[in-house]
Design brief:
heterodimer; A: alpha+beta; Beta-Lactamase; Heat Shock Protein 90; 3 domains; 10 helices; 50% helix; rod-shaped; B: Rossmann fold; five-stranded parallel β-sheet; 5 helices
Amino acid sequence: MYSTMTKDSVRVNFTDAVLSDLVTQFEAIFGIEHSVAVFDADDVLVFGAEPRGRQPNYRAVYSASNLPAGSVVIYCDSPEPMLERGLVFFAATLSQIATEIQRRDQMADEVLSRYEELNLIYELGTKFAQGLGQEEIVEFVLNETNRLVQADAGVIYVWDSAGSSIVPVSHFGNKTNTDFWSGRIRELALSTLYAYDQAQLFEADRVICAPLRFNDELLGSLVLVYERDDKRFQAGDINLLTTLTQNTALFIYVARLVQKLADEKTVLEKTLTELQATKDKLSQNERLSIVGQTVGSLIHDMRKPLSNVMGYAGLLQETDLTHEERFEFAGQIIKYIEVFSAMAQEVLDYTSGDAGVNKSQTSVEKFMTYVADLLNPPGLARDTKIIVTYDAARDYKINVDAQRFVRVFQNLVNNSVDAIETHGGTQVDVRVEPIGNLLRFIVEDDGPGVPEKIIDTLFQPFVTMGKSNGTGLGLAIVDRMVMVHGGKIRYETSPMGGARFVFSIPHE
Amino acid sequence: MDHPNNLKKVLIVDDEDMTRVLLTHILQRMRVDGLEVLLAEDGEEAIRMANEERPGLILLDVLLPKMNGYDVCQRVRGIADYSPYVVILTARGNSNDRQRAEAIGANDFMTKPFNPARLMNQLSQIWGL
């Protein structure tokens, strides 16, 4: 318990020992017993003799901090003038002590309130760190305020998020007081915001309004109401309220910011989801369109040999064919069915991709012999020379799917031969050379080379060099098969003047 | 149909060798005396051969390297004292193609893939067999 101060008196809480000691000494000096009583500012006996209806002989008022604090009274049957002077001295002494107690209590009060403030800020920080929202923070602040300043009622108004009106977020106290809930308090809160927003506190008629303000932004108002006359605010209370409202405003500001960010994040996420859906849909359409183009391109290419088959089949229907003509037309049909079949195989190779690749170890010699035999089948006379060289790499082991890896060389060499037969040239070289732990494969020719405008897209499907009997998948298959075997194919101009394809794969 | 040209001297213009071979086979199947078949792979070669050889009948593909069949036809029509019988060959054959072929002065129109019987029938009419 501490001293309390009102506008015109002070309540001092003497400890019993102090009063007991003073009264005992005083009575001893004047030789009286049980004749001195001490009253407080409200005339309540705080120490000494029971009056028992007796009239005091002498009364002296003592004060504290220049305000009346109470009185000292002597009940004595035979008073002496000396006793009266002694009483005045006693009252003066009490005043001095009361003032000191008052100062001490004020200091203690201040220290305690500083401690409470710090503690409250700490608690607020803890609550905030728990991720509490605006309402929880406001409720906590109001409860703490109630505990510390013991108002009869309190409310925290906060501007709604639209900033159009203030709404009570949390409250305590006498809800039946119509004043409290109807216009007056609200008006006071509003006037704090509008008229007094430069002031830190607005106090009037036992109502105190403190703006919740952060960074020049008014977020709301804390209103406390006292219904008792004896309750007065003190300097410590005002400090506490100021600290509280400032910190509360900060936390509300941040809580709103967090909420705003969360809302924006939600909106962004929703937009992102919609965008993704649109993108998925678009890319699905794109894929369908690519599939459509692919199928169209393939059908266009594959219809050519079939229309020739149809043409020769029509010729075979003629009745007066010679033996030679019949043989020739049937041979053409077989040829175009082979072309068609090769194209179908190319499509299958491309669409099956890496699936079913089955590698096994073999020697370069064995594999390249196989390649050479396929490229130069016995009995086939061609104008274009195909020269396969692998002596330097003969004994190296490679891990390949021979059936599919050989397509790399078939496709590259067939392209070269086609280009040479159409545009001139004489030979195609296929070479294997060991380089460190790699084997370098080169397929090059002295033909016309690849036209500049398709070099960049050479390995993409459906890029052709103008061949009429291809699907446009040959080099795409080559690119993929080289990759499956651990290499990366590239195109360059050959020193021989034509096309040169180079890639390396590891040997065992 | 009055053409002072030698209709038995035929120029086949197509960039695909399999088509050129098939058309040659079909022409040969007609067993006409004095048939002479010339082959060209692109538009420029076609014009050069038209100038030099003056074939009386030109079987002309539309999609050609270097110069398309319509342009070849117009250039051929510009050659003095020469009016060959021109047959446009096309994979499509809708009315637009037909109108365009007529507009640039083509005499006839054949659609791919070729039905040899129909083609031979057309050739019989051209040759007046």
